[in-house]
Amino acid sequence: MRRVVVLYVLMSRLKIYAQMLFRYRPREFWNDVLSESFDLRGVGHYRLSEDDNRRMYEAKRDLIAGQLDRFGIAAGPATRVLEIGCGVGYWTEYLKGRGVRHYTGNDITPVSVTTLRQRYPEFEFVQGDAGEISLSPAAYDLALMVDVTQHITDDAAFSRAMANVWQAIAPGGTFLVTYWDPATNKMLATRLRLNRIEKPRPLSAYTAVWGGGSTVLNTIAFNDKHLAVVRKTW
Questions:
Q1: Per residue in 152-186, pLDDT tens?
Q2: Is the pLDDT of residue 193 over 50?
Q3: In the prediction, which pLDDT does 13 show?
Q4: Which long-range contacts (CB under 8 A, 24 or more apart) does 57-64 make?
């Protein structure tokens, strides 16, 4: 029986690695990854332990908390929050702990949305591509997209996602989004020869979609990426 289980796990991982190397289909890829490992290893660094990933996420949490405090960005009971790429619910739990009551989480994978709906029945979850889901205009005060955008490897899909999320943020609202800048991470060229699931873009690729109504309040190092704090002015 144990050999059967081991064989099943190996076959599952081979399927995942084959997509990483040759044919990346985001919905299928991430659903396979999270179905096998619905924890921080699934959304973080798979080669690290769950404890190591948790420490990494706690460092990210502290960085985000610092930016919220620095710029007086509300994240409480009255704040309407949108998270794109909610994954295993780490930021869902963080926002709930801050008192957020109006939260919409989106993920491309059915396993994420199904699981998180069960864990957080008080919140709303929407499954689908970020560029294709229906988001009401100016419906959110705060949007988060953490460790997600580099996995949108198709440029047209990236533009659709950025435009859709941006139009859903209310004037005066804030977008916290991470980006992987090839100009400041020289390891990207090597990493991208090994997989097809990531594509770095400079911040200018994002602001080009948002247009003149975006004001970048700050950018900070965020693990192997950067975090941009962006205010929607109109």
A1: 999 999 999 999 999 999 999 999 999 999 888 66
A2: no
A3: 60
A4: 57/90, 59/223, 60/146, 60/222, 60/223, 61/94, 63/220, 63/222, 63/227, 64/94, 64/146, 64/176, 64/227
CB under 8 Å to 76, separation ≥6 — which residues? 98, 99, 100
- Name the strands in the sheet holding 140-145, side by side, starting at the edge strand that comes first in the sequence: 124-127, 102-107, 80-84, 140-145, 169-179, 225-232, 214-222
Beta carbons of 114 and 136 less than 8 angstroms apart = no
pLDDT at 5: 38
User: Domains (ranges, CATH) in the chain?
Assistant: 2-232 (3.40.50.150)
Q: Are 82 and 144 in contact (CB under 8 A)?
A: yes
Find out whether 119 and 89 touch, Cβ atoms under 8 Å: yes
100 alpha-carbon distance from chain centroid = 18
* 3-state SS assignment for residue 38: coil
Q: Could you say which DSSP state residue 233 is in?
A: -
Q: What are phi and psi of 189, to 5 degrees?
A: -60, -40
Predicted model pTM: 0.91
